[in-house]
Amino acid sequence: MKKHYVALALSAGAAMHAHAQSTVTLYGIVDVGISYQTHTNPAGSSTWAMQQGNEGFLSGSRFGLTGKEDIGGGWYAGFTLENGFLANNGKLDQQGQLFGRQAFVKLGQQRYGELALGRQYTTANTMLYYVDPLGVGAAPTNSWQVFMTGQRYDNAVSYTGNYGPLQAIVEYAMGGIAGDTRARSSISAGLKYAQPSVTAIVDVQQTNDTQDRYARIYLAGVKVPAGPVDLYANYLHSDREAGFDSSNGGEDTASITSMASGSPTAAVAINRVFASHRRDDFFTVGAGWHIAPQWQLIGAGMYDRTLAQSFSGTRTTAYGVLDYSLSKRTDVYFAAAYERVTGGWAGLFGNTTTNAAAAGGAGLNGRNEQVSTFAGLRHRF
Predict the structure, then answer these.
(1) How many domains does the chain have?
(2) Of 33, 166, 180, 304, whose CB is crowded by the most CB atoms within 10 A?
């Protein structure tokens, strides 16, 4: 009997030990605010609304589950399931997908790195996070560069390795089209170097649509701390073959990446399909100033020039954010942005056309300038 009780005790202890090595965490962000935008229709009218493009200015609302299990010898397994939702109306974000932000399983070892399979962020989006003043924003006025990089890959396999101050990510997304391994596939690689004095990144990426037309991007950026101020700069070059269409013919289902996006104030977004070869050169410079432990001031400028056959146009955004932390998890903020377009993008804001002249459609009939303000409340858990 004593041996039986000892065996039971040992078994219970082993079970408790095994349970202690496995964890599941619920986390999330809810970011909601009141926005005001000028020139939201061709007549130049203004709009008061909750959210901007159904997003908070700083963050997309989300909740997720992440788990990790120690399986011995330094090896571990885990998963992430992350849902995006629209806090102003309760609907699912990311084309209505349940776990549209992330959905993957992973296996890793501290020495050899980590392998992940499933829906994941593009390497460009991941690298931008480290060198963007907002860590890549959410509202259309401050995050439109991700319409060039794409935000997420479906059917992706990635490897992440950490080697001292260096982090390397290599990712391949399978197209899944019979008889054609290139169509609707993506391949990319990113490298980050991080030290207390500087963070620097580079990234290269190629995505092919269903017709094997390509979109290539090259990205580089830095973050430099200078006392209470963090300085940011990044450059993105995008090169798209004529007719490249990540949306499989019109609706963005994100089967390749979330590289096509509309806007509540523009029937034609700056990302739309071009009938000719298209090149974009995108620059961001900005700074984040920790005025006091609870106060932060963030400001940045974003500029893109688009060149194509018989087309030249620019878009410029300047924004500022004043953020106050009520606690470690909750902050309130006020944000303002000014945007201007020129050349072929003239008339972008508040237009009602269904395609841009560069794509063989009608000219844009909106306005060239737009001012946005936003008062928000954000809670993280």
Answers:
(1) 1
(2) 33
